[in-house]
Amino acid sequence: MSRPSWTTVTPVAALVVLGLTWGSHPGVVAAAGIGVFLVGAVLSAVHHAEVVAHRVGEPFGSLLLAVAVTVIEVGLIVSLMVGSEGDTSALARDTVFAAAMITVNGIAGLALVIGAVKYRMAVFNPEGAGSALTTVVALAALTLVLPRFTTSEPGPEFSSSQLAFAAVASLALYGIFVFTQTVRHRDFFLPVDDGRGPADEDGDGHADPPDDRAALASLVLLLLGLVAVVGLAKVESYPIQDGVAAVGFPESFVGVVIALVVLLPESIAAARAAARNRVQTSLNLAYGSAMASIGLTIPVIAVASIWLDGPLVLGLEPMQMVLLVVSVITAVLTVVPGRAKTLHGLVHLVLLAAFVFLSIKP
Questions:
Q1: Measured between alpha carbons, how far is 129 from 140 in angstroms, rounded to an integer?
Q2: What band does 85 get if pLDDT is binned at 50, 70 and 90?
Q3: What pLDDT is attached to residue 106?
Q4: How many domains does the chain contain in total?
Q5: pLDDT digits (tens, 9 = 90+) for 155-180
Q6: Which of 75, 127, 93, 143 is nearest to 256 (CA)?
Q7: Are strands 122-123 and 339-340 parallel, antiparallel or unpaired?
Q8: Residue 78 has pLDDT above 90, yes or no
Q9: Which of 123, 129, 179, 294 could form a disulfide with 139 if both were Cys (CB 3.0 to 4.6 A apart)?
Q10: Coil vs helix vs strand at 25
């Protein structure tokens, strides 16, 4: 009889820890221990999402991973907004923007560097990557840039009707893209086979798909992992903010911490795909996560704002808008040719480094 793997044990163990710590305000040592289980739950949840993704194939796999990560992100945001005694009016904005910068510059840049170094050029489908990037830009403009320029409410906020419109428009854009990706033009989002990558039975660059029983087990464990992540994030809400304040970082850096934790497994998955010469899959993960982060998080936060006290600040600061514009221009110039050199990936990674540094020292 074989021993259960860590990905099977971790979600259950995380739920046990959640039951023992729910409602507490842990100290430094306890918070560190809980954090280990939180990260483990995130990693195992995305692992099981990847197993299910293998079963359904591309581009459905990348879509499932992006949605799973976004569910985790939304849970973390709402948990921190509800559980915090401080000002969390800009937490959703900071987290969503951080997710966009990490995915568009970090995950995509890392994948391009790995693909270009290992195979000389990173090759992908410009129609698919370009369509995804276009949707990300439109979502970011509608939800993160426009609030800075509207006049119905003072400050970088939407009025109730504007927020409702932005939420509906975000869902519509995301739904249209999903239809395009999975039905209308699915072939644009499949990996480009240039004969240089490893082959397998299903041609998706991953291990052979699991059987129905394994996929169903992973689906159950995925749901358990998501519940554990959201619950443990609620428990960790105070220590995260206390830790950021203790090291002297701006309060907005809490959003960066959330995005970094949530997107770490996605980064690993994209790096693995790029190493197999499946850069299109990596870009599906990167841009799909950015899209889901904005297109699904904003509507959920809009609904949550009904019972959350205080304003909801969504408009980016001028420095953030500059970083967004530069990132978009760089991404467009990278995507259009359908292939990229190491230089393109490194430029994106430098932009990510600039974002992290300026988040600490604005």
A1: 16
A2: low
A3: 95
A4: 1
A5: 898 998 999 999 999 999 999 998 99
A6: 93
A7: antiparallel
A8: no
A9: 294
A10: coil
Q: According to the model, what pLDDT value does residue 201 have?
A: 42
**Cα-based distances in Å from 168 to 95, 135, 162, 299:** 20, 15, 10, 7
Which 3-state string (H, E, C) describes 219-270?
HHHHHHHHHHHHHHHHHHHHHHHHHHHHCCCCCCHHHHHHHHHHHHHHHHHH
CATH number at residue 179: 1.20.1420.30
Residue 16 DSSP SS3:
helix
pLDDT for position 198:
53
| β-bridge mates for residue 157, sequence order | 313
User: What is the structure's pLDDT at 350?
Assistant: 97
Q: Confirm if 138 and 131 have CB atoms less than 8 A apart.
A: no
Burial class (CB in 10 A: 0-12, 13-18, 19+), 199: exposed
- Report yes or no on 155 lying in a domain: yes
- Residue 251, classified by CB atoms within 10 Å of its CB into exposed (0-12), middle (13-18) or buried (19+), is middle
pLDDT at 235 over 50: yes
Number of Cβ within a 10 Å radius of residue 134: 15
Cα separation, 270 vs 351, whole angstroms: 18
Name the residue range of residue 296's domain. 6-360
Average pLDDT over residues 205-223: 75
pTM over 0.90: no
CB within 8 Å of 139: residues ≥ 6 apart: 170, 173, 174, 291, 294, 295
User: Is 352 within a domain?
Assistant: yes
Residue 122: in which H helix or E strand, if any? strand 122-123
- CA dist 353 and 362 (Å) reads 13
Residues 274, 110 contacting (CB under 8 angstroms): yes
Per-residue pLDDT band at 58 (split at 50, 70, 90): low
Let me know if residue 1 belongs to a domain: no
CB 325 within 8 A of CB 302: no
**More confident call, 197 vs 8:** 8
